[in-house]
Amino acid sequence: MSYYCRCWRKRSSINPMIKLARARSIIANFSRKSVLVVGDLIMDRFIWGTVARISPEAPVPVVDVEREEDRPGGAGNVIFNLVDLEAKVSAAGIIGMDAVGERLARDFEYRGVNIEGILLDPARPTSLKTRIIATHQHVVRFDKEFKAPISAEFEKRLLGVLKTSLAQADAVIFSDYGKGLIASHMAAILIDSARKMGKPVFVDPKPENFRIYRNVTCMTPNTNEAFLGSGELPKNTDHAVETIGRKIMRRLNISELVITRGAQGMSVFDRSRTGTVRITHIPTKAKEVFDVTGAGDTVISVYSLARVAGATALEAAHLSNIAAGLVVGKIGTATVNRKELLEAL
């Protein structure tokens, strides 16, 4: 029987497919787990204000600034999600020798994150995304960043540091924002090392880097990333998503796949040892959407942590779906903590 036929699909009901007692048991294990996050470290800067008039100089709104706030973004948001879920976290990445990078490192250290894997590159500025938000609406975003691949020297140094961190971790998360940190050579070495140690690898990928994530445990792309990473135009019907999901699993030899689909929830692919693929479409749990910034970071954080804490793929997906529904109801780069997750259940 062909791979495409060994498949079982289900559309879940709106009720969570995980009992409360079971969820509590899984979440209670979060604090016993350690996760290594490898990825692009970014600072998200938010400038908040109000708009009461249009500029006389150009047809643009004039924002009266009320406050500013810096929050870790990119892989940093994954790290803070895991910290708020009370996991032990080690971070690996590169920051510049500048005030933004210093602030990121200080924020991580203050929250108890192991930052031995964060290297300083004087030739590379720390990535900074600045968003101007007026009355709950994004007005504009501007980025300061350097996306060229890291040097061979820094890749070698990073791999040396990661050997120790990997040995101490229960799981690895690649948080790929396409800023040049993660390249084929480094990813292959880390994935192979993790597999030999029996440690799962979870990836939030960039479409252009799909091919370097062969043999990982799970990927969590959104709909656009899933199709573009496969060289196809995005579609959001159940049938199209099922087809592209099977193709990704086969080409990359992965056992689990979660495709996040915005207002349509998420589609979960779970391959058994016999090769059977179970596909479950889960409706969104968001009650009100204010901002989708960082929702994918929350999904991979909760999913990965739940899996190593004893959850099945489907249980982990339901927990991450609930968590994502919480963060999109917040403004800016947001996280969810254990209390909020339990209350939402």
Observed structural traits:
four-stranded mixed sheet, 14 strands, disordered N terminus
Quick rundown:
This protein has 345 residues and is α/β, with parallel strands linked by helices. Helix content is 34%, strand content 29%.
Explain this structure:
- With 345 residues, the chain is α/β, with parallel strands linked by helices.
- The protein contains 10 helices and 14 strands.
- The protein has helices spanning 20-28, 75-84, 99-110, 152-168, 184-196, 223-228, 238-252, 295-308, 313-327, 338-344; strands at 7-11, 34-39, 41-54, 61-74, 88-96, 114-121, 127-134, 137-144, 171-175, 201-204, 218-219, 256-260, 266-271, 277-282.
- The strands form 2 sheets. A 10-stranded mixed β-sheet has the order 1-14-13-12-11-10-9-2-5-6, with helices on both faces. A 4-stranded mixed β-sheet has the order 4-3-7-8.
- The longest helix has 17 residues, at 152-168.
pLDDT under 50 segments (min length 5)?
1-8, 12-16
Structural class by SSE content:
alpha/beta
* Gross morphology: globular
Radius of gyration: 20 Å
State mean pLDDT (0 to 100 scale). 89
Helix residue percentage: 25-40%
Based on DSSP secondary structure assignment, what is the total number of beta strands?
Answer: 14
Q: Biggest sheet: strands, sense, closure?
A: 10 strands, mixed
Q: Give helix and strand order, one letter per element, not per position.
A: EHEEEHEHEEEHEHEEHHEEEHHH
Our count of helices gives 10
